[in-house]
Amino acid sequence: MINAIAIDGPSGAGKTSLAKALAKKLGLRYMDTGAMYRAYAAAAIRRGLDPKDPEAAEELLLSCKLSLDYENGEQVTRVNGEDMRPYLRSPEVSKAASDLSTLPLVRMALVSYQQALARQGSYVLEGRDIGTVVLPNASVKFFLTAGEKERIERRFKQYQEEGKGKSLAEVENELKYRDKQDSEREASPLKAADDAIIIDSSKLSFSETLELMLEEVKQRGNLSS
User: Fold this and answer.
1) Is 222 exposed, middle or buried (0-12, 13-18, 19+ CB in 10 A)?
2) Is 126 in contact with 205 (CB distance < 8 Å)?
């Protein structure tokens, strides 16, 4: 019986779009754990706090209450009751979230919150430490990856579609920074769980990758209610 699906992988691997599509196909809730780090990062920027400073992070956690709910099936991440969605996808917030995520205190607080939410129902969770730390007993674990060139091009295309005027070189530098932070941080570094299904989507279309994931889930049995 499947109670949770964990999806991990580096920046630009397509985790968010695929996790949303997989959750919709299976009738599960989708949880974007990265949005939680981004919400705190946006709050830190607005308060003039250094996202690399452990003391500033402690102040942030004490003064800002994170909550998550759903509107029309879409995740809404709030800080002190404010919908943070308009602020989550800027390059500035992305960098601050990467910095903030390296702090053990922040990761401990958010992992605990994510685990508590996951106990309340069946989810597809997407992030960078889901299968290894947040839900090591998840029924199905995926690790999505792609070549660096493909990931840079995908992120560049995403920014173009969103109207963000970033050059290809800027996107490359941003992605490499995220990769370094994710893989080298002391707390919950990015890595595939030993029992994760590793999918390299470099040569696969979105629909091909989704179908492959659905087939893997199907092979593992029915979903829990």
Assistant:
1) exposed
2) no
